[in-house]
Write a structure and sequence with these properties.
Chain lengths: ~290, ~290
């Protein structure tokens, strides 16, 4: 029997708690409200969708959105100067740079321009360094998707200590930071990627398998051992003529794995909603710190 | 036949090259020479020994030492203010904080006080973040021991790409950063530590095993597979009445492993000398950057 790790439900509960937290603040008309600036560059459909979801969650909770939509052809200097003015803006407690940026703009330079106080995505090198070294983790924002993965395990009472956690993918946004968080929770970690040889022989050792490579249903039932816990971060479009839009969303893990897994996140409705809930949580924490 | 990975020899060659590099600068009497400040707090014998080795290497190469020896009972604020004045000191191109610091002083706070330009140990959170995210690695100093480990493999023509590298130990100084460097060289990495279950079953999978736990001869022959490459970072004292000082230095790996390994670093004379050579290399790179 495979437990469905219901990220949508957990995320909804978190958002409701955050909404209550904002209500308890009893903010007056003139008070500065928690504010999130979302910087979107260009017109990627997926990015626009993610931004819409994030804004919706903010609205529900009582977080003010400060929208910044820049043209695809904007210069790097203009993006940097936008970030600098948001750093100064008293209404803004968190700055989210929707990734990926167009290729002519250095993500590295843009992300390190965000002030440490407003880095609600936790992607500033200083924060990734603190995360790597397990330092002052309670006073910084952790990257939202990795934090959401670990929170889901926690909510379902799945211990990390002493477990062998195998991570597929080594991106700066998911694979690497989630591996570090698992390590700091005393898991043994293995990070695999496109150059890994005989991948199934490694994934079969996983007590917990975290998949974040973005390859449609890559992980099959014979890639895992009985009782494995699966966190599927992948969100891939699979052609499906029966759907109105012509495709459906699937993860990196094939549904056949359910037969062997003890617990597994669905796609959609698993990690995705958690990312947004963690963003809102980070924003409110940054707001609270700004009041001190 | 097990190849001896001769760190002492590789390090000597590197130091000689660095010495020639300094000579080629043809510095005049009035010119600012490359300068390394070494901050030693307290009277640990091992720390004093390491500092002596580092100073000797600097002297040989033509790096000026600025010695700062603080009392065991110094306050954290005094250490921080010492670091701040070294940050301003034009003679100083690198600041080395000899670790560990006495327990009443926060290493975290001291290390992040070192200016980014003078962080020749690469321990500032910003630099560890850059390292984690594989960003601008050519323009920052990488932590000396991890860099030395990878350099040794490189010198002996041992490829990392596609290899399974198992790291024993997850310290911020060695285990974690060396794992990240191996990952960035396209190795599959597994990080093990004191909470890892059935350690030998994991170490036996290693193509390359990097040991940095500081436990005397812990890794035995039946913990590894035939042909493994061993990088032994451990430096442990083993009682030996036949020695004048009553002990000899041994690594984390038992000498019986030589029968199965294809290549292995000795202790002493393996990674140790490389750490110092990498420090000198980092210092000269920081000096060169300061001239631009």
């Amino acid at each position: 029997m495979c437990t469905r790790i219901d990220g949508a439900k957990v995320a909804k509960d978190i958002r409701e708690n955050l909404k209550e937290e904002v209500e308890r603040m009893e903010l007056k008309e003139d008070d500065v409200k928690p504010g999130l600036a979302i910087v979107l560059v260009g017109n990627r459909t997926d990015s626009a969708t993610y931004v819409r979801f994030k804004k919706k969650a903010c609205d529900e909770i009582g977080i003010v959105n400060i929208d910044v939509h820049l043209d695809e052809t904007v210069s790097e200097e203009e993006v940097l100067s936008t970030v600098r003015s948001l750093n100064e803006d008293q209404r803004v407690h968190g700055i989210l740079i929707q990734l990926p940026l167009p290729s002519h703009i250095s993500e590295e330079r843009v992300l390190r321009e965000v002030s440490l106080e407003k880095d609600v995505d936790g992607f500033h090198p200083f924060h990734i360094g603190q995360l790597s070294m397990k330092r002052s983790l309670s006073s910084i924002c952790l990257p939202c998707t990795p934090k959401g993965c670990i929170r889901l395990l926690d909510e379902y009472g799945i211990e990390l200590e002493g477990k062998h956690v195998v991570i597929l993918g080594r991106s700066n946004i998911v694979g690497l930071p989630v591996a570090l968080l698992a390590l700091h929770s005393n898991a043994t970690i293995t990070i695999c990627h496109s150059r890994t040889k005989d991948l199934p022989s490694i994934t079969r050792q996983a007590d917990i398998l975290i998949c974040a490579v973005g390859r449609t249903q890559m992980v099959k039932a014979d890639w895992v051992k009985d009782g494995v816990v699966i966190i599927d971060v992948g969100i891939n479009e699979l052609v499906d003529p029966s759907k109105k839009r012509g495709y459906r969303l699937v993860g990196d893990v094939d549904s056949s794995v359910e037969e062997k897994a003890s617990a597994m996140t669905p796609v959609p409705g698993g990690v995705g909603p958690m990312t947004i809930a963690m963003l809102c949580e980070n924003l409110l924490a940054a707001y609270q710190r700004s009041l001190k």
